[in-house]
Amino acid sequence: MRRALVLAALLLTACHTAPEKPVLRVCADPNNMPFSNRKGEGYENALARLLARDMGAELRYVWWAQRRGNLRETLRAGRCDLVPGVASALESVATSTPYYRASYMVVTRTSDRLTIRSLDDPHLKRLQIGVQLVGDDGSNTPPAHALTRRGIISNVRGFMVQGDYRRAFPQEAILDALAAGQIDIAFVWEPVAAYYAIRHPGMIRLTPVSPAFDGPALPMIYDVSVAVRKDDLPLRQRIDTILQRRHGEIVRRLRSYGLRADEV
């Protein structure tokens, strides 16, 4: 009798135990503002929270520096379920509907009143130029390649996209150099430049690089998506549904970081 009562009590407890909440694993950089950080201050942190909330899932981060090869080592290796902030045209993963579009920017000091927007502007041959670099094996940013194609090399200074990980804003060395007068102009990815601009009001001027496509292989503008593994199309569909439903909220969040959040 006693065993029966114990068994009944266990069964009753099991019936009333809430089902375990699913987990959404998101790979993100712990120190890469304005995109993400451990404090959850980036706009990709905000997007991850929104996706987890709408899926009824527990958000769990897999912290991984956004270095070259990180998708192979994280998402494609099964360490996480999704990675926000990837180029929509990336072929090694399945990508969601784009949730914003961004451009490389021509960045100048406001006080200099330079009006350069084109890669073909003749002034570029005499100005000290800063560009973001990825590496020394040819996989560099489009503005770096475009300037090289035009023979503009000797007056160009490179700043690694990965930056100095010991500082709070690793990618901003190029903008600090511009503000300090060490370079005259910089070509910078829009989210990084826009976030710097809202934190240093009136200091710099941002202009989208022209032409937007410097030949078929050198786009200066990209649609940005959430990446999932190619075999996880149901998750991509859920993400697409949320991105569509929460579009207005996402755009407002992006604009709070200085992005234009152009329609895609």
Give an overview in words:
With 264 residues, the protein is α/β, with parallel strands linked by helices. It is built from eight helices and twelve strands. Strands 5, 6, 7, 8, 9, 10, 11 and 12 form an eight-stranded mixed sheet that branches. Helix 4 links the parallel strand 8 and strand 9. The radius of gyration is 22 Å and the shape is elongated. The protein starts with a helix and ends in a 9-residue tail after the last helix.
Structure, briefly:
The chain has 264 residues and is α/β, with parallel strands linked by helices. The protein has helices at residues 2-16, 43-55, 70-73, 142-149, 173-179, 190-199, 233-245, 247-255; strands spanning 23-28, 31-32, 36-37, 58-63, 83-87, 94-95, 100-109, 129-133, 156-160, 185-189, 204-208, 221-228. The longest helix has 15 residues, at 2-16.
Question: Which terms would index this structure?
Answer:
264 residues; alpha/beta; 8-stranded mixed sheet; two-stranded parallel sheet; 8 helices; 12 strands; 23% strand; elongated
Write down the Rg: 22 Å
Shape: elongated
Task: Determine the structural class based on helices, strands and strand pairing.
Answer: alpha/beta
User: What's the N-to-C terminus distance?
Assistant: 68 Å
The helix content, as a percent range, equals: 25-40%
Let me know the largest β-sheet: 8 strands, mixed
The amount of beta strand, in percent, is 15-25%
The beta-strand count equals: 12
The ordered string of helix (H) and strand (E) elements is HEEEHEHEEEEHEHEHEEHH
What's the helix count? 8
Low-pLDDT runs of 5+ residues are 4-15
Average of the residue pLDDT scores: 90
